[in-house]
Amino acid sequence: MAEDMAAPAADAARVYYDSRDVDGFYAQAWGGEDIHFGVYADPCEAISVASGRTVERLAAKVADGLGTGRRVLDMGSGYGGAARRLAQEFGCRVVALNISEVQNRRHRELNAQRGLDGRIEVVTGSFHDIPAADGSFDVVWSQDALCHSGDRSRALREAQRVLKAGGHLVFTDIMAAEGAPADEVRPLAERLTVSAFATPGFYEEQLRALDFSGADFEDLSKHMLTHYERLIAEVRTPAPGLVNAVSAAYRDRLEANLPKVADACRKGHLTWGIYHARRS
Predict the structure, then answer these.
(1) In 10 A of CB 256, how many CB atoms?
(2) Does the structure show a pLDDT above 70 at 113?
(3) Which of 11, 77, 144, 220 measures 20 to 30 Å from 18, CA to CA?
């Protein structure tokens, strides 16, 4: 995508996540602290449990880049669930870069409540222009945030720039499957105010072009369907917290839209998983 699309996409993401309905939905229904897809051991388990398992899965891939004295950049950190887990369990320091100040306020509050505000720095900004020096981080981490980039090539170049030699890049993203019908996938992207999804082929090409080594992809697409089925159940029988947090009109839109996304997953039009590579 052209570089001049980066700023409009960042603005669209900010407006989307700062809205009361979207903030309420993610905070109350999507897992609370984690707003990415979960890895499910049981199709009926809590979304928050499955979302935490995803963090564990990513952390296992980059374990030698974590620990005391290590620095992690979380690009698109949301409410900070992953940042807190990493700081708490591994003792690393995390810079949490995120476009939504609404989310960042809650992130900072939760960090302070857990006594982690000294290990996590929450920065409001865009991953198209990371406010850090070259070679600053041992790990660059991102979960389901790059879909909001108007220039994913630029975001990945920035990730490479701020990584130390031998440092880890690990990320997940919602993607269109190769050959998925554009007319069916486009409306799903538009719900997230995203112009289009990337494909696995795009990310593989980008990682090769940036000379990352050992790049691999763990396909976890089957968990997307489970995740959306769990969200559908949460919205159809909403808990009081969700009822109070979002408007009735927004719940109606979710009830209409979420089954369409689940159907796209069922048809194999969407894909999701973990990319991991190291800076050469």
Answers:
(1) 9
(2) yes
(3) 220
199-234 pLDDT, tens digit each: 999 999 999 999 999 999 999 999 999 999 999 999
Under a CB-based contact definition with an 8 Å cutoff, are residues 25 and 240 in contact?
A: no
Q: Nearest Cα to 264, choosing from 177, 192, 150?
A: 177
Tokens of 27: 């905070």
CB 31 within 8 A of CB 14: no
Q: E strands within 5-149?
A: 71-75, 93-98, 120-124, 137-143
Q: What is the pLDDT of residue 190?
A: 82
Please give the model's pTM, rounded to 2 decimal places.
Answer: 0.95
Q: Which two tokens stand for residue 81?
A: 């669930």
Other beta carbons within 10 Å of 68:
8
Q: Using DSSP, state whether 24 is helix, strand or coil.
A: helix
Among 94-98, 191-195, 269-273, the minimum mean pLDDT is found in 191-195
Buried b (16+ CB within 10 A) or exposed e, 142-157: bbbbbbbbbbbbbbbe
Nearest to 32 by CA among 211, 245, 202: 245
User: What is the rounded distance in angstroms from the CA atom of residue 189 to the CA atom of residue 174?
Assistant: 10
Question: What burial class does residue 252 get, using C-beta atoms within 10 Å of its C-beta: 0-12 exposed, 13-18 middle, 19+ buried?
Answer: exposed
